[in-house]
Amino acid sequence: MFARKCFAGLFLALVLVFVADLRGQDSQIERFEKRLRLSKLSDHMICGGAPTRADIAFLARSRGVTRIVSLLADSPEVDQEESNAKDLGVAFDRKPLAIGLNGPLENARVNRDVARSIIDEIRATTDGTVYVHCQSGRDRAGFMRFAHRLSVDGWGFAEALKEAIDGGFSPAKLPGFYEDMKLYAAELDELPKLQPMPITDKELHSKEFDAGIGSQTLNVKIKGEGAPLYAIHGGPGESHKLFRPYLDELSKTHKLVYYDQVGCGGSSKPQFAEAYTLDRQVAELETLRSVAEDEKISLVAQSSGCLLAIKYALKHPERIDKMVLVSGWASAEDFREYLPLLGAVMPQAERDKYDILLGQLRKAMRRPNNQELAILVGLQVPGIFFGKVTDAFGNDWMRHLEISAFVNAAMEKEVFRDVDLKPELPGITGIPTLVIAGKFDLVTPPSVVKSIATGIPGARFEVLDKSGHFPFVEENRKFIDMISGFLSGKESSS
Q1: How far apart are CA 420 and CA 40, in angstroms?
Q2: H/E element holding 221?
Q3: d(CA 174, CA 443)
Q4: Nearest-angstrom CA–CA distance, 178 and 351
Q5: Which of 327, 330, 328, 324 is nearest to 230 (CA)?
Q6: CB atoms < 10 A from the CB of 187, how many?
Q7: Helix (H) or strand (E) holding 344
């Protein structure tokens, strides 16, 4: 009996020692991974910091690493790393990724050819694992993580960028890296420069007539003749000016109806929040159609204007001929997921101005007025477009940017927090619908916009490859040709 008890005690002690040993190993591995900031992107690619000789041996033994690629510039440390690797039978390759990191960070760039070559090699690897020495989890590793997600995993631009930012990458501090991300994804050597499309102040701000909508009036401008096409602006709280003159060419084949929603632009502005709901906007649009004596209308809506168009189609399907939905969302939850990206990619100078103004508003304990809200939105312009915003374009865009802070605040909860029309989308039947997204849209990435097309039976989905949130601005010719063909019944895209 005593012997059995002793044996049982010894066995338990051995088990406890074994478990403690395992815990010790787990703790050691955890410290190892944390120290090197290991980031596994696939079965054949691991990113991390500078490995010692012991680290290389451990990586080879426990992670199957057969090759190390250093993204750092040549240095004595990299020489030692190469010597250690070769002594241990691990292949070593030098592929400096960053250009100018030793100078001002805002001037640093990426050698995109190096990034592509590494990704191509990883893609072709079927045996062993490549350890990519990035030195930091923020800059080089952020770019390589982005490139891998985009090229190998097939992620969208916004999704890949979000993961890199969540991992510590800062586009504001490394604007050159962010630009190279766009160039890498677009397979371009240079970003297109945005230039304004000419329109005089007199034409841009002209009022054609006021349409009486109950006790309110809508500022309406009609161009051209033919089948009626109504342009639905977003915001909420913006005006039809953001469409001009970019959609004007559609007036050659259609009766193009621009109008400002109640509270916006040149329309009347009731000062009670209850006046601003999507249902009221639907009623306003239906009354305008009736006043204009248009039996059936087509719609082209952008951003939050897509919510109005969708709700109108659900309530008055018999009144719609065709519908074009651009850069919109059907679910506030989907929209909010990517909203932080706009602030993250804001250049540091603009970010500082943005934070100062927000700080002043918080100190005064008030919301921004119309002018202040336009300034805040204007500071986000670099993240709204794919191409480079020239001074000429930026100044011209601010001519078009008019926002009602009151309307925006009144509709904020419904539009940005509560709305979910996705379950209702299958109810839109018999209405030919074209849904358009910009590949580089950080406000409503293609995955968000596509959910609208997926929900509406028979809807067609198109992505413009060199556009952000305003495809009709950045790829105007392609956009006009695409929706002109759709509205005329020609289903093939240009």
Answers
A1: 35
A2: strand 216-223
A3: 21
A4: 15
A5: 324
A6: 9
A7: helix 340-344
Looking at the chain, the number of H-run helices and the number of E-run strands are 20, 17
Query: Which contacts of 275-281 are long-range, i.e. CB under 8 A and separated by 24 or more positions?
Result: 275/216, 275/410, 276/236, 276/406, 276/407, 276/410, 276/411, 277/411, 277/414, 278/307, 278/308, 278/311, 278/411, 278/414, 278/415, 278/419, 279/311, 281/308, 281/311
Q: Are 242 and 196 in contact (CB under 8 A)?
A: no
Let me know if 274 is exposed, middle or buried by CB neighbors in 10 A (0-12, 13-18, 19+): exposed
Domains of the chain: 25-186 (3.90.190.10), 201-335+406-487 (3.40.50.1820)
Identity of residue 94: R
Percent of the chain whose predicted confidence (pLDDT) is above 70 = 92
H helices present in 63-139, as ranges: 76-87, 112-124
Residue 139 main-chain phi, psi, to 5 deg: -95, -75
Element holding 40 (H helix, E strand):
strand 39-42
Enter the pTM of the model. Answer: 0.89
Q: To the nearest 10°, the Cα dihedral for 293, 299, 303, 306?
A: 90
pLDDT value for 382: 86
Note whether 449 and 435 are within 8 A (CB). yes
User: C-alpha dihedral over 479, 468, 375, 344, to 10 degrees?
Assistant: 180
What single DSSP character describes residue 331? Answer: B
3-state secondary structure (DSSP) of residue 94: strand
Residues 336 and 423: their CA atoms lie apart, in Å, by 18
Please state, in angstroms and rounded to a whole number, the distance separating the CA atoms of residues 32 and 50. 11
Which amino acid, one-letter code, is at 169?
Answer: F
SS3 52: coil
**470 with 438: CB under 8 angstroms?**
yes
Longest dimension (CA), the chain: 105
Q: Which two tokens stand for residue 411?
A: 């509709």
Give the C-alpha distances (Å, rounded to integers) separating 23 from 27, 60, 61, 62: 6, 22, 19, 16
Per-residue pLDDT of 423-481, as tens digits, reads 999 999 999 999 999 999 999 999 999 999 999 999 999 999 999 999 999 999 999 99
Closest among 16, 1, 125 to 67, alpha carbons compared:
125
The helix/strand/coil state of 213 is strand
What tens digit of pLDDT does each residue of 172-223 get?
Answer: 999 999 999 999 999 999 999 999 999 999 999 887 777 877 788 999 999 9
| DSSP type of residue 37 | T
Of 49, 22, 44, 16, the closest CA to residue 34 belongs to 49
Place of tokens 């009626």: 228
